[in-house]
Design brief:
Layout: H1 3-61, H2 66-81, H3 86-107, H4 111-115, H5 117-152, H6 156-162, H7 176-179
Helix pairs in contact: 1-2, 1-5, 2-3
Length: 188
């Protein structure tokens, strides 16, 4: 065989292995992003399961705060039934987080409730779940960053475009109120 033919075959073989490597890396990054999104759903499910227990504990103490309890229940149902995109789900989840903050603010007016072991445990579990949701969202965003960077980078961009890989959107704070710092007042 001619030396030139061997060189051409060698270059073609390297190109094929490179193409396979880039394609597999894109698939890996896309699957990691999907896994991260699934992790968010797992934490949201945990939150949904904790809320009814918290509500039952609080109902005993706050019978006349019906509006707050109904608001939390309604927000939970809306968040659970939201089949939209991750960003649409995020909006419903942010609303639910806001109603939970209201519930805990109202609970401050009930010293017996604040000291109740069940309430304290549920509040701790819910706070832990909220932290895990935020960690899951950060993990999702880091995976999306890696995927989007790979898709935008040359020469992987050519492979991504050829095989239909597209950029994914980050979880972001949508509501302007969510960007505001929480006001803490120790004078009460």
């Amino acid at each position: 065989m001619n030396t030139t033919l061997w060189i051409i075959l060698g270059i073609a073989l390297v190109a094929v292995f490179w193409l396979i490597g880039v394609f597999n890396r894109l698939v890996t990054l896309r699957n990691r992003a999907k896994e991260a999104l699934s992790d968010i759903d797992v934490q949201l499910k945990r939150r949904y399961d904790l809320i009814p227990n918290l509500m039952e504990t609080v109902k005993v103490y706050m019978a006349h705060e019906r509006g707050v309890l109904e608001g939390v229940t309604e927000a939970r149902v809306k968040a659970m039934q939201n089949p939209g995109t991750p960003l649409e789900k995020n909006e419903a989840e942010n609303f639910l987080s806001g109603t939970l903050k209201t519930l805990f603010a109202v609970a401050e007016n009930y010293p017996d409730l604040k000291a109740n072991t069940n309430f304290l445990e549920l509040q701790r579990e819910l706070a832990d779940t909220e932290n895990k949701i935020q960690a899951s969202r950060r993990f999702y965003n880091s995976n999306i960053r890696d995927l989007n960077t790979k898709i935008e980078s040359f020469p992987a961009r050519l492979v991504a475009k050829s095989f239909g890989f597209s950029q994914m959107k980050f979880f972001e704070v949508i509501e302007p109120e969510e960007k505001e710092p929480i006001q803490v007042d120790f004078s009460k």
